[in-house]
Specification:
heterotrimer, A mainly alpha (301), B alpha/beta (481), C mainly alpha (272), A: 301 residues, mainly alpha, MetI-like fold, two-stranded antiparallel ribbon, two-stranded antiparallel sheet, 4 strands, B: 481 residues, alpha/beta, D-Maltodextrin-Binding Protein, domain 2, 2 domains, six-stranded mixed beta sheet, three-stranded antiparallel beta sheet, 48% helix, 13% strand, globular
């Protein structure tokens, strides 16, 4: 029958129209540069006028997957990936748990709760640069308020504790956003389900773990996906607090290596391109895993 | 007929010019030849004046507008603005607009993307270490070309500065802001430790001696330093040793690092010993802790440090303002030598930045940019510049001006920095290393410093590892040109 | 525990956590009002004589007056654009069915994964080719879409109860009316959150404005801030003041709109 078909067609066309503006922007400013970026490591460029990616002229030789293999098999890729994983594990679960905790606490009907909600979301106003300055003003060995040292070594220069320190700063800085996201997820929960659980006499903790948390799973899932992607891409705090990637490169994450190769190393664009694609692939795999997990675990009210 | 001396000179000059012009060759091949830095210092330098048409200024018919991308901040920026205004108001042919690019790194990134486009700057301030990269990228017109066209020379410029910024006898940028590291110390702390405040240490051994004395007098540390690879470059240069091969990259492209010498080992051991014995304090060279070595003097934890002469102005201001925990009277001394034996073998390296002329293909703008850059390097401007910023004047005659004489009388530390550039020998070591991936090589040294100063490995191992890593970086870069 | 006691505990835990979260911000404000000496001598918990000089210095040296307007224009434009495109896209993903829906959605998420370092230089070249350098277009257009926004809003839209949707369509609501009369009001907190995130991202941009503008008249606040991070000694307190100036507008915005966010948080799902 013509009617349902044309209805579906209209719906599809409407959908594409709604998505189109976003897609045009993405296409030009994200997918296109990324595609060009993938092309770079297949060639070896020598000579030419200009710097790095912006060179003109020179000779371009096809080298196939050689450079891909070199860089992806390099110590640098492995080491920085490992630091990135450590960093992600340190920041994402903590950030989400804290955000959820604050959201639950701020969800109570208490007088003056608005003030607390504002305070909890306040870190959202800070940027990586601001958070780094703030943090350093607190712990700087000569200029800070608390002049923090461990074994006589300033915190940010410590071979073991520098990464956790940067993780703390990053977590603090994103706490406001975590709180806001968790709160907006919390408010969407149907009150009657929560009330029913309360009437049933379940304890607060029981209610939380058996009812609230599963109902929050879409929000939690969202937070984990977005959080891990963001953690993998973190660069600013690390560059500001531990320039050079920390003592013994213990805070040198993959995103740092990408920036270093692409912006600070002369003619380093091949290395940067491979590392960036490596970064992207790891994040993609991580996200797809999470997507698959979500489909399995998704709780329907 | 006896030939009077002037005539001999004129004949010789004529002969020289003839030889130079004859050896000249086309514009583009000259660029390539000097581009790889393969001419030895003994070759006659071709006349590049056809790359720079100063006459284009006259025929432009109206003020030529140019942009200067710089990285100067705060007080330095103010002095630059002052000079630029002076230049703009003094003539009608060139109008300069300044753009503050926040720092050397961002300036370079922006320059990279703008080169060859309409947006390219006409004069750009790039850091000292950028020379090889810029030459390899064929991104600039050598300043030498405009100097030749103008019939000007670099006789008034401090020799070491010219040597640093020239390859194969061709000066690439116009010199502008120069600094070098000096020894800062607190005279009051010296007195308290029974040391003569007018006799600062001159060798490593003396630094250690003094530091021990200061520590015994109750201060937590005697000497602080940044884990900055620049420092090793300076000490090797003082000892007259080259940092990379092929005469520091000047007679041919550098292909390996040569800094793993006994002197370097001695430097590392000196630093390691001091830190290990709790007499020396260290901090990172960049990032939020980068000023800790100076701050520690303010906090009364320490009495000596090495830092750039460019910090002298603000350091004195802050340290002596009465706002510090410790009572401070700032003393400035030349950089100590690794040992008394190497005295005279070398000297301190040139640091800072210089003004390059991007190759934009517009002769009028090139001529205009050169005129402005020449103004900035002129004796009068350099006097104002040095007095306003604390950078070392590159013009020797500017030091005779009242401004500089007054500056040096008020703050003798500035004279120390200047004198350092003229003391010692002028050879390939003091001309400074020319490396493509300078930052990469410096990173390997930062890693080495961290390794033996913070992580506990041995200086020898750290040095060897740095040499290996540096060789890799040099190779990797050479494979791209 | 008595109900009174439980209440005290609740307030206490909230206060402690609030203090921990807020302390760093409090510290920087205090530091920005002090002099370097005071800071070296120990944390001035409450500055006796606040030194506002740091602020005027930071304001001047960071050229804030010049950059503030640009930052405002660009940030508002980007925020509005992102909210609009995200709402549209999220609506499609949440309420419509169409071929390739899943793939397209994954592509939206993919945009989040691509590191900025990869795209920025090519985008500068694109902008240069289009002659957009030194225009507001260059500062705004590349950021008009948001994968994060579409993702967050889709999540929020999916939580609109199905019966509401069915009721609306039975009542003859078209898509537009459904969107504006029901979906948007219901998901206001999520939209506000997304808008805030967009605002911040735009406000905090640094490298992009630097590379696409060579005319100081188009530069943004972050450029001014970075000019304060000097390498000379006396800059610390000025930097602190500059930092506070840098995040003050956003903090104010947050305060203004926290009512919006909060209202959504207390209302719960609207019924009927």
């Amino acid at each position: 029958m013509p009617a349902p078909h044309s209805r579906r067609l209209r719906e599809a066309l409407l959908a594409y129209a709604l998505i189109l503006p976003s897609f045009v922007v993405f296409g030009i400013f994200i997918f296109f540069p990324f595609a060009k970026n993938i092309e770079i490591p297949f060639y070896e460029t020598r000579g030419g006028i200009g710097f790095g990616q912006n060179k003109t002229g020179g000779t371009r030789t096809w080298v196939g997957f050689d450079r891909w293999r070199d860089v992806l098999g390099s110590d640098e890729f492995r080491d920085t990936l490992w630091v990135t994983v450590k960093f992600t594990v340190l920041t994402v679960p903590t950030g989400i748990a804290l955000g959820l905790l604050l959201a639950v606490l701020a969800h109570q009907r208490l007088r003056g709760i608005t003030i607390y909600r504002t305070i909890f979301s306040s870190t959202v106003a800070t940027s990586a640069a601001v958070a780094s300055v703030i943090f350093f003003s607190l712990i700087g060995p000569q200029s800070g308020v608390f002049k923090l040292r461990i074994d006589g070594i300033p915190l940010l220069e410590h071979p073991t504790w520098a990464l956790p320190a940067v993780a703390v700063v990053t977590t603090w800085q994103s706490l406001g956003l975590a709180f806001i996201v968790m709160s907006s997820g919390l408010q969407a929960l149907p009150d009657e389900v929560l009330e029913a659980a309360e009437i049933d006499g379940a304890s607060a903790r029981r209610r939380f773990f058996r009812v609230t948390l599963p109902l929050m799973s879409p929000t939690l899932f969202f937070a984990f996906v977005v959080g891990s992607i963001a953690a993998f891409k973190t660069f600013a705090e690390i560059d500001l607090l531990t320039p050079g990637g920390g003592t013994g490169n213990n805070t040198r994450v993959l995103a740092y290596a990408v920036y270093d190769a692409g912006f600070r190393t002369p003619n380093g664009e091949v290395r940067a391109a491979v590392l960036a694609v490596g970064l992207f692939t790891c994040v993609l795999i991580l996200t797809l895993l999470q997507l698959r997990l979500e489909r399995r675990v998704h709780y329907v009210a | 007929m006896r030939l009077r001396p002037p005539t001999i000179v004129s004949i010789l000059t004529l002969l020289f010019l003839l030889a130079a012009c004859g050896g000249g060759g086309g514009g583009s091949s000259t660029t390539n030849a000097t581009g790889s830095g393969t001419t030895s210092p003994g070759d006659t330098v071709p006349d590049l004046s056809d790359q720079c048409d100063l006459g284009a200024l006259e025929t432009a018919g109206g003020p030529v507008e140019i942009t200067y991308w710089h990285a100067m901040q705060q007080a330095n920026e103010e002095t630059l603005i002052e000079l630029t205004d002076e230049f703009n108001e003094s003539q009608e042919q060139v109008k300069v607009t300044l753009l503050n690019q926040n720092g050397y790194e961002d300036n370079f990134t922006a320059f990279q993307t703008a080169l060859g486009t309409d947006d390219s700057p006409d004069l750009v301030q790039l850091e000292d270490t950028a020379l090889q990269r810029v030459v390899d990228a064929q991104a600039v017109v050598p300043a030498q070309a405009c100097l030749d066209a103008a019939g000007a020379n670099t006789d008034d410029v401090v020799e070491r500065v010219v040597a640093y910024y020239s390859l194969g006898g061709v000066l690439y940028p116009m010199p502008f802001n120069v600094s070098n590291p000096v020894l800062y110390y607190n005279k009051k702390s010296f007195e308290a430790a029974g040391l003569d405040p007018e006799q600062p240490p001159t060798t490593f051994a003396e630094v250690r001696e003094y530091a021990d004395a200061i520590k015994s007098s109750g201060m937590e540390y005697g000497f602080a330093f940044k884990r900055d690879p620049w420092v090793l470059e300076q000490f090797l240069s003082l000892a007259g040793e080259a940092y990379v091969n092929n005469d520091n990259g000047r007679t041919g492209r550098a292909t390996e690092a040569t800094f793993d010498t006994p002197t370097a080992q001695a430097v590392f051991e000196f630093l390691d010993g001091g830190v290990g014995d709790g007499v020396f304090l260290t901090n990172p060279a960049s990032g939020p802790s980068a000023l800790d070595n100076l701050l520690s003097i303010c906090n009364g934890n320490n009495a000596m440090t090495i830092d750039t002469s460019a910090a002298l102005g603000t350091a004195t201001q802050v340290l002596e303002s009465g706002g510090c925990i410790a009572e401070v009277e700032v003393g400035v001394a030349p950089l100590p030598l690794p040992s008394a034996e190497v005295e005279g073998n070398g000297g301190v390296l040139v640091g800072g930045a210089a003004n390059y002329l991007p190759a934009n293909g517009d002769p009028a703008r090139l001529a205009a940019a050169y005129t402005f850059a020449a103004f900035l390097a002129s004796p009068e401007s350099q006097a104002t510049w040095a007095a306003g910023t604390g950078y070392i004047p590159v013009s020797k005659s500017s030091t005779e001006s009242d401004t500089i004489q007054q500056l040096w009388a008020d703050s003798p530390g500035f004279k120390v920095a200047y004198d350092q550039l003229l003391t010692g020998a002028d050879n390939v070591a003091t001309a400074g290393p020319v490396i493509g991936d300078y930052k990469g090589v410096r990173d390997t040294l930062t890693d080495a410093l961290e390794a033996f100063l913070v992580e506990g490995s041995s200086p020898a191992d750290a040095l060897a590892a740095a040499k290996r890593a540096a060789d890799e970086k040099i190779e990797a870069y050479n494979a791209t040109v | 525990m008595s109900p009174r006691g439980a209440l005290v505990v609740r307030y206490a835990s909230l206060t402690v956590l609030g203090a921990i979260v807020l302390f760093p911000i409090y510290a920087i404000v205090v530091n920005s009002l002090s002099t370097t000496t005071e800071i070296s001598n120990g944390f001035p918990w409450f500055p006796s004589s606040p030194d506002w000089g740091n602020y005027s210095k930071a304001w001047d040296e960071g050229h804030f007056s010049r950059y503030l307007l640009n930052s405002a224009i660009v940030t508002i434009a980007i925020t509005a654009g992102q909210v609009a495109t995200a709402i549209l896209a999220a609506y499609a993903f949440a309420f419509l069915s169409f071929p390739l829906k899943r793939t397209l959605f994954v592509l939206f998420i993919v945009t989040l994964m691509i590191p900025g370092e990869v795209t920025i230089l090519q985008n500068v070249a694109t902008i240069t080719d289009w002659n957009w350098k030194n225009t507001y277009w260059a500062l705004v257009v590349p950021f008009l879409a948001s994968g994060f926004g579409a993702f967050l809003l889709r999540q929020a839209f999916l939580q609109v109860p199905d019966d509401l949707r069915e009721a609306a369509f039975l009542d003859g609501y078209g898509h537009l009316r459904f969107l504006t009369r029901i979906v948007v009001p219901l998901t206001r907190p999520a939209i506000a959150a997304m808008g805030l995130f967009a605002f911040l991202g735009a406000w905090n941009q640094y490298l992009w404005p630097l590379l696409v503008t060579s005319d100081d008249r188009y530069r943004t606040i972050q450029n001014g801030l970075s000019q304060l991070g000097g390498t000379s000694l006396q800059e610390f307190t000025t930097t602190y003041a500059g930092t506070v100036i840098g995040f003050l507008p956003v903090a104010l915005l947050l305060l203004l709109f926290s009512k919006q966010l909060v209202r959504g948080l207390t209302a719960g799902a609207v019924k009927g």
